[in-house]
Design a protein that fits this description.
The protein is mainly beta. Helices cover 14% and strands 39% of the residues. The structure holds 2-acetamido-2-deoxy-beta-D-glucopyranose (NAG) (3 copies). It comes from Brassica carinata (Ethiopian mustard).
């Protein structure tokens, strides 16, 4: 191998090593290494903030274009839920096409929804800049019947 070709190949390797990955979530110019999503599930079809919470309901994160659900978790007794996405899940996460659902009846909520499901869209709440990774925190809006 000529010295020149060698230098050329090494420079390509260096460029590959220092370039950030071309995929992945970026918000406000910050690349996001981790995502957390929280919200409160209530036993209401219209997002009534005074409705009793849903305890132990299964909350599912779905993103458009993906055939499988991205993540799921159970609600706490006060209806609160929190999901942490892994780095790989974060790569597949596109906030505008992702939403949260809970199938009714769920946990201790025995009401029926015509669609069988409550859904909520996600809103970016904050980005915490860390030493190793930036964490984006999303809040799921009120969970409503038939928003999609
Ligand atoms: C919560 O739900 C899970 C799955 O639906 C079930 O296996 C578990 O027994 C429930 N826990 C309580 C405390 O109801
Ligand atoms: C579900 O259980 C929680 C915790 O015990 C309670 O606060 C809530 O009111 C219950 N929700 C319903 C719809 O019964
Ligand atoms: C970042 O590093 C500094 C110095 O090592 C440390 O004091 C700080 O707690 C770290 N912050 C986070 C969010 O880990």
């Amino acid at each position: 191998m000529s010295r020149r070709l060698k230098a050329y190949l090494i420079s390509i390797l260096l460029i590959m090593a220092v370039s950030p990955p071309s995929h992945g979530l970026s918000l406000g110019g910050l690349s996001i290494g981790q995502v957390e999503i929280n919200g409160i599930a209530r036993c209401s079809l219209n997002g009534d903030p005074n409705a009793p919470p849903i305890s132990n309901g299964t909350v599912i994160l779905t993103c458009g274009g993906l055939t499988a659900n991205l993540a799921e978790t159970l609600t706490q007794p006060n209806g609160f839920f929190l999901m942490f996405l892994s780095f790989l899940q974060t790569l597949l996460f596109t906030p505008s096409s992702c939403y949260i659902t809970i199938n009714l009846p769920a946990g201790n909520c025995s009401i029926y929804s015509p669609d069988g499901v409550l859904s909520a869209v996600l809103t970016l709440a904050s980005v915490a800049v860390g030493n190793n990774t930036n964490v984006a925190s999303f809040v799921a809006g009120p969970m409503l019947d038939n928003i999609f």
